[in-house]
C-alpha cells in the first residue's frame, strides 16, 4: 500500500479488534475512529506510516496498461455473427452488450469504505447491512446461475490442453495465457473451440475476476476444459 493513512487505518482497526475481541463493531464506526485519530496525530507520529508508504511506492513495479471491461466491449464490437452466437451458447450472451459507465470517484470510495470483504457485506450502520451474494452478481450481469461449483484445481492435463490450443508444438507455458495470445485468436474470426476458450478466459481475466496482470492464470484453466458445462456453473 502506498497511502500512509490506509496503512494506519488497517493497523488501527486490527488493533481495536484484537484489544476488544468480545465487542462487535461495524466497519464504518472503526473507520470513523481511525480517521479521527489520524487527524489528531502529530507529524512525528505519522512519520513511520509515511515512510512505509514511500518504501512500498519505491518497490512497486511500473504501472502497466491493463485490459479492462472497456476492452471487452471493444472486442465484442469486432466479433462476427457466428462468434456472437458461439458466445451466447456458452451462456455469456449478456456480456456481448456490456457497457462501462463512469461513476463519481467519491461514490466509488464510499462503497469501498463501507464494504467488508470478510462478510461480503455493505455496512451502512448497524441496521443497514446488505450482503452481496453470487446471485446478486449474476443478476446484475445477466448471467445464468447454475448449481455446479466452478473447478479451480489446475492439473498438468489442464495446462497441456491450453498449450495444445494456443502454443506451437513443443512450446511450454511459463505463466498464464496472455491477452496478446488471445487477441491473435480473435483476429482469425473463427468460432470453434479455440475461440470459445479464448473468449471465456478473456472475459474472466479482464472483467468477471480481473487479475493483476494481462493474463489468464492456471487457476482459470479447469473451468474451460468442458465448454458445454460452463452454463451450469455456479
TrEMBL record:
<protein>
    <recommendedName>
        <fullName>HMG box domain-containing protein</fullName>
    </recommendedName>
</protein>
<dbReference type="InterPro" id="IPR009071">
    <property type="entry name" value="HMG_box_dom"/>
</dbReference>
<keyword id="KW-0539">Nucleus</keyword>
<dbReference type="Pfam" id="PF00505">
    <property type="entry name" value="HMG_box"/>
</dbReference>
<feature type="domain" description="HMG box">
    <location>
        <begin position="1"/>
        <end position="68"/>
    </location>
</feature>
<dbReference type="GO" id="GO:0005634">
    <property type="term" value="C:nucleus"/>
</dbReference>
<feature type="DNA-binding region" description="HMG box">
    <location>
        <begin position="1"/>
        <end position="68"/>
    </location>
</feature>
<dbReference type="InterPro" id="IPR036910">
    <property type="entry name" value="HMG_box_dom_sf"/>
</dbReference>
<dbReference type="GO" id="GO:0003677">
    <property type="term" value="F:DNA binding"/>
</dbReference>
<keyword id="KW-0238">DNA-binding</keyword>
Amino acid at each position: 500500500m502506498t497511502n500512509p493513512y490506509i496503512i494506519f487505518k488497517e493497523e488501527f482497526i486490527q488493533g481495536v479488534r484484537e484489544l476488544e475481541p468480545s465487542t462487535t463493531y461495524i466497519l464504518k464506526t472503526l473507520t470513523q475512529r481511525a480517521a479521527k485519530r489520524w487527524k489528531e496525530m502529530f507529524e512525528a507520529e505519522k512519520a513511520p506510516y509515511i515512510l512505509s508508504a514511500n518504501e512500498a511506492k519505491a518497490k512497486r513495479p511500473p504501472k502497466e496498461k491493463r485490459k479492462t471491461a472497456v476492452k471487452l466491449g471493444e472486442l465484442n464490437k469486432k466479433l462476427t455473427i457466428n462468434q456472437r452466437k458461439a458466445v451466447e451458447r456458452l451462456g455469456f450472451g449478456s456480456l456481448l452488450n456490456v457497457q462501462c459507465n463512469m461513476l463519481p470517484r467519491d461514490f466509488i470510495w464510499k462503497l469501498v469504505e463501507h464494504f467488508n470483504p470478510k462478510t461480503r457485506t455493505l455496512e451502512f450502520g448497524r441496521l443497514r447491512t446488505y450482503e452481496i451474494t453470487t446471485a446478486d452478481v449474476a443478476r446484475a450481469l445477466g448471467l445464468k446461475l447454475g448449481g455446479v461449483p466452478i473447478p479451480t484445481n489446475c492439473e498438468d492435463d489442464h495446462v497441456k490442453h491450453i498449450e495444445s490450443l494456443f502454443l506451437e508444438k513443443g512450446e511450454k507455458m511459463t505463466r498464464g495465457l496472455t491477452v496478446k495470445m488471445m487477441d491473435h485468436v480473435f483476429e482469425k474470426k473463427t468460432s470453434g473451440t479455440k475461440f470459445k476458450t479464448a473468449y471465456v478466459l478473456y472475459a474472466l481475466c479482464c472483467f468477471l475476476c480481473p487479475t493483476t496482470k494481462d493474463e489468464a492464470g492456471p487457476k482459470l484453466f479447469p473451468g474451460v476444459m468442458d465448454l458445454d458445462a460452463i452454463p451450469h456453473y455456479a
